[in-house]
Amino acid sequence: MSKKLTSRVEDYSKWYNELVVKADLAENSAVRGCMVIKPYGYAIWEKMQAELDKMFKETGHQNAYFPLFVPKSLFEAEEKNAEGFAKECAIVTHYRLQNDPDRAGKLRVDPEAKLEEELIVRPTSEAIIWNTYRGWIQSYRDLPLLINQWANVVRWEMRTRLFLRTAEFLWQEGHTAHETKAEAIAETQQMNQVYATFVENFMAIPVIQGVKTESERFAGAEETYCIEALMQDGKALQAGTSHFLGQNFAKAFDVKFANKEGKQDYVWATSWGVSTRLMGALIMTHSDDHGLVLPPSLAPNQVVIVPIYKSEEQLAEITNVVNGIMSDLRSKGVAVKFDNRTTHRPGAKFAQHELQGVPLRIAIGPKDLENGTVELARRDTLTKDVVGLDNLTETVEGLMTEIQDSLFNKALDFRNNHLTEVNTFDEFKTVLETKTGFVSAHWDGTSETEDKIKELTKATIRCIPLEIKDEEGVCVYSGKPSKHRVLFAKAY
Q1: Is the pLDDT of residue 74 over 50?
Q2: Contact yes or no for 246/265 (Cβ under 8 A)
Q3: Cα-based distances in Å from 202 to 49, 331, 407, 408, 470
Q4: Model pTM greater than 0.85?
Q5: What percent of the chain stands above pLDDT 70?
Q6: Which of 58, 133, 339, 355 is least buried, going by the fewest C-beta atoms within 10 A?
Q7: According to the model, what pLDDT value does residue 123 have?
């Protein structure tokens, strides 16, 4: 592969795939459809985890861990959930291998080691968790039960793409139990807001909050809330979902509690989750043809310092000054790295850090020491400036905030410029084919129309926005009455 990335305009999909690999974020593994997340990519995911985990705990949730395997009978207990994931399930049928008598040095499944009950490799954990909750909940005093787990899941995808859609992926899944319907709905809405806050404030990605249509809801949910983001190619990406499950899982697994009147009642449930798909959103929202662009809030290295020198003596002098710079920056909470590798020339280091999206790069050489200055390069704008050492820490602090805000505002402008209201189906199709982005249109509320529009245009209803206003109109496709607009888009 050449060092230069394919242009986004030329081939967006190829650009994305090349960037993930060349920026050292992830690579395909020996297992079909699965990925290896490399240290730099995992460092970004760890920062996402840390911030989300803090937000979960601030809202009263605790972490736990549940088994990877789900007995088939438990998986089948909630019919809609089972049906919804059936085609993506990996199944364990045997528990032992043996030497193959017909092929020397090879193994085969031991036919005598068949499991009494097949095990599903979790595509989601509602079944195993709600079977567990039955033993944890007896009284209203045990509620609310607010649990999250960080885990991996397996969904046997046929068409995969690094981070966006893989057979195995990392995620968190919250599963909560409540005394009343109102409390469960409030929890569902609260966690959707937590996701929106995280994605906007840390990932610098504007999102639209809404609810899914019945056909797009999570299998087994009564209502699915979501956050939808728009990528640079004009396609939408579902960045997070939060589900009001009603009493469906409580009834399926007989999870009851004694209420304050002493009567038995089924608990009310929610589940909510985000995954390593957020990595794909981060890449596709901000990055350019030079490589990754990271918001400072999630960059493993917010600042990298590259020394320019010809002799060991010059490097020693530069290192002495850099140590002071790093101490000052770290005291302000800035993540800084001194790239003093002797195996790479400065130009190669610049190219690597640009490709990997480091927000700020500082170059310092002998002349800088004489002048009391450094060269400061911004990744988001690809601009350079010479600044004094005396106020370098304050300058860097200010730029961290400026870059974070600038990336959000740039993405917001793009999203706003690619949100188009239409009133006819011809307008609808033209926008999707030429301008792309979100299309705001009236819909008659029927799954038949929803399916037909998807068949004809490949666009789906991304959400019914929470801030939607009542507006009498007619469906963009059927011409039937409509009370408000919904957002359509082609999506990942």
Answers
A1: yes
A2: no
A3: 11, 21, 11, 9, 32
A4: yes
A5: 99
A6: 58
A7: 97
